[in-house]
Amino acid sequence: xxxxxxxxxxxxxxxxxxxxxxxxxxxxxxxxxxxxxxxxxxxxxxxxxxxxxxxxxxxxxxxxxxxxxxxxxxxxxxxxxxxxxxxxxxxxxxxxxxxxxxxxxxxxxxxxxxxxxxxxxxxxxxxxxxxxxxxxxxxxxxxxxxxxxxxxxxxxxxxxxxxxxxxxxxxxxxxxxxxxxxxxxxxxxxxxxxxxxxxxxxxxxxxxxxxxxxxxxxxxxxxxxxxxxxxxxxxxxxxxxxxxxxxxxxxxxxxxxxxxxxxxx
Length: 265
Known about the structure:
Elements: H1 23-48, H2 53-75, E1 82-83, E2 86-87, H3 88-105, H4 108-122, H5 129-141, H6 144-156, H7 160-180, H8 188-205, H9 216-236, H10 249-264
Antiparallel strand pairs: 1-2
């Protein structure tokens, strides 16, 4: 998740070359990302018993403040998009509201929490297991590095962006685990399914996204994702409680709304 929108890579042709790559070459970044999160979780668990509460709290607050900054930065992508005559910010707002309504109707946040509770019971996790699982799953999977990095990995075998993401996620996992416990580590299941799935499916979307870094559909997803990341930052700082998972449908609605605005404008 963490990181800024990558610059355009015009020298990299996005054509359907993924079929020539092996499974490891197309998903290497995802496996490395999962490994760094697990390593960060182990370090966080080792520190948790030795750090006083005030130090654990300050670590999470540091991640929270950084998350807010990244969220603001990514949300700015909406200012770079225009769907016909409709401003990108309007598209993002409508996507977020409609997506939030759909997410609450489908009780996505509750579903993710139920999965966290099931894992907690199955593996006898303690403390704030579910909160850590939900927070880490969203934090590590919402953002442009996940989307663009997975597409590059799946198409070209280039895991550079996912390696950057893996480093940032691993460091964040240390701080989150020290506060929430082992539930953070179980977010690797979501990383493997979501991020790995995008990498494996990348070849099929190559024709639709000739340059993912500058494509307006990716930019609106980035902007909406940035707004969701802002919500995660507020939650980490315990300023309020935003049901961020309920907004997940907005990520799918944003490019559809952009296409509609292009069509009718």
